[in-house]
Amino acid sequence: MDQTALMLLLCLCSSALSDELRLVAGRRRCVGRLEKKDLGDWKPVEYWNWDWNFTSAAGACRQLHCGSVVSLQIDENYNVEIVCSDSVRLVQGTNRCSGRLEVKTNQSWSSVCEKDFDLRDAKVVCREIGCGPPSVHQGAFYGEAEAPVGSRKFLCEGSESALLNCIRIKTSGRNSCSPGQAVGLTCSDNFRLVGEASRCAGRLEMLHQEEWRPVAVMYSYWDMNSAAAVCAALDCGSAVSVRNSEEDSERPVWWIWSHCFQSGSELKNCLPYDGNNYQSHEFICSGLLVEPLIFLSSSTDGVSTGRKQGSELLIGSNFSIICSIRPQYEGGSFQLIFSTSNYTQNQTLPAVNHSALFLFSAAGHAHQGTYRCVYHVYVFSYNFSSISQPLNLTVSVSASPTALIIRLVVVLLGLLGSVLVLYFKARRNQKSGPENNHHDEGSRAEGSLEEETAV
Ligand SMILES: *[C@@H]1O[C@H](CO)[C@@H](O)[C@H](O)[C@H]1NC(C)=O
Ligand SMILES: *[C@@H]1O[C@H](CO)[C@@H](O)[C@H](O)[C@H]1NC(C)=O
Ligand SMILES: *[C@@H]1O[C@H](CO)[C@@H](O)[C@H](O)[C@H]1NC(C)=O
Ligand SMILES: *[C@@H]1O[C@H](CO)[C@@H](O)[C@H](O)[C@H]1NC(C)=O
Ligand SMILES: *[C@@H]1O[C@H](CO)[C@@H](O)[C@H](O)[C@H]1NC(C)=O
Ligand SMILES: *[C@@H]1O[C@H](CO)[C@@H](O)[C@H](O)[C@H]1NC(C)=O
Questions:
Q1: Which ligand is nearest to the CA of 63?
Q2: CA distance 153 to 70
Q3: pLDDT tens digits for range 174-203
Q4: DSSP conformation class of 448
Q5: Which residue from 9, 22, 79, 196 has the fewest beta carbons nearer than 10 Å?
Q6: CATH top-level class for 191-285?
């Protein structure tokens, strides 16, 4: 075997994850330039030899006994700089911004007890690992941990940069917390679309180091596949378009690598790094519109009552169905779709003031069925639509069951009253004769009886 072949073999072996790694020249132990031991010498890892993905970066942090990976950076000399969190990490989550919280103290990782941790502490952790603010924190969400031991209670104010900067008090330790009460944490999305009336359209921004900036893709561009990943991650349906935005000026951006959101990986796993760019991009997703609302308004008693679902009308009453939508875009139209088990019909009205009124006279059994409003609008050179919840309408001959029950109770009480009055009358008649008859009571009882039977 010649010298070159031997070198090649050694290089191949040393590129495995079992490489000896270290971070140097950082402001703390878990931050710095990544170096790898190569034939006995420490050499910086060059950025073109680095697999820029979450798995490899997370692996490096883990190997260095640091916490979660927070960001990646290229240094001046094309080296790789990694920022890992020192002593917090989320484990067993679906992405880097969720999981069970573990804190390192005295060189070992342990879970934190739910009762020693609150929303302000959660804010600090989410910030520390470079994710958005906390959306959920609860116990036993990300796998059952053994009961947290030697627990410390955290007293964060919420503005600290690291959990270990918060005041801690030692709690009673062992057995103070049962299994299933380990803190699980979900930090919210660290990306959003901005600049449009909808959260599902606009320029992509990412939150990192407490700063929202536009996002640019390293050595690549936003195509429909990557746009689809963005729309899906935001729960905004599918991608309609992605285009360069008109403005063209150099600004600070967060750079990400395209493979961080491809191959099923989550956008949250992207590790942004600092840089400048000229271009920003506008995304449009299919879930652009909010859901319209549907109301029933009937005027039987002169007062309009709008109810959201499961409405009942008295036969013969005039009614209207109102479709409306939270103002996002001007114009558009509302289509009212009526369906029964064997029949579908629809009518359309232009949206005036973001709503439309469909009038119906003399409710009959033919009006019974399900109504839905569909809002249609043409924006960004595309047609969009969104559909409301269903409104199920029934038409009854008499009033609602509750009203019937109330009337029945009134009638029964009236009858009871009359019976009692007749009884007392009879007793008085027995005692003092017919001339002492209490006419008021008798007529009142009769009156109420007549009134109720007339109902
Ligand atoms: C990410 O990096 C790991 C480790 O280097 C590698 O095994 C994996 O294939 C990479 N994944 C992607 C999607 O590039
Ligand atoms: C840290 O660990 C060492 C050795 O395992 C132990 O002696 C020491 O008491 C521990 N300190 C704390 C504060 O738990
Ligand atoms: C319903 O509307 C018609 C006119 O469209 C009116 O003549 C009728 O009195 C109304 N009925 C009720 C119950 O309000
Ligand atoms: C739908 O079915 C009902 C009975 O189930 C029937 O009375 C009605 O006429 C049908 N309507 C149409 C339009 O076929
Ligand atoms: C609405 O009605 C028209 C005919 O009036 C029909 O062509 C169309 O398919 C209907 N649309 C829906 C969604 O039912
Ligand atoms: C639209 O709504 C606003 C307030 O909700 C009202 O002031 C205005 O008169 C309405 N315009 C029309 C055309 O109904």
A1: 1
A2: 24
A3: 556 676 778 888 988 788 999 999 999 999
A4: H
A5: 9
A6: alpha beta
Tell me, using a 6 A CB cutoff, whether residue 53 lines ligand 1: yes
Q: How far is the CA of 260 from the centre of ligand 1 (A)?
A: 10
Is the CB of 299 within 6 Å of ligand 3? yes
Q: What is the Å distance from ligand 5's center to 345 Cα? A: 7
Longest CA–CA span in the chain (Å) reads 138
Token pair for 264: 């099923």
Distance (angstroms) between ligand 2 centre and the Cα of 139 equals 27
Residues with CB under 6 A from ligand 5: 337, 344, 346
What is the distance between the alpha carbons of residues 31 and 78, in angstroms, rounded to a whole number? 16
Q: Determine the average pLDDT of the residues in 77-95.
A: 86
Tokens matching residue 12: 């191949």
The mean pLDDT of the chain is: 79
For domain 293-402, the CATH class is: mainly beta
State the closest ligand 6 atom to the C-alpha of 352, by its place in the atom list counted from 1. 13
Query: For residue 106, how far is its CA from the centre of ligand 2 (angstroms)?
Result: 6
262 lines ligand 1 (CB under 6 A): no
* Cα 106 off chain centre by: 37
C-alpha to C-alpha distance for 202 and 285, rounded to whole angstroms:
9
pLDDT value of position 304: 46
- The closest of 191, 218, 217 to 204, measured between CA atoms, is 191
> Is 191-285's fold the same as 293-402's?
no
pLDDT tens digits, one per residue of 216-228:
887 777 888 888 8
Question: What is the C-alpha separation between 12 and 39, in angstroms, rounded?
Answer: 12
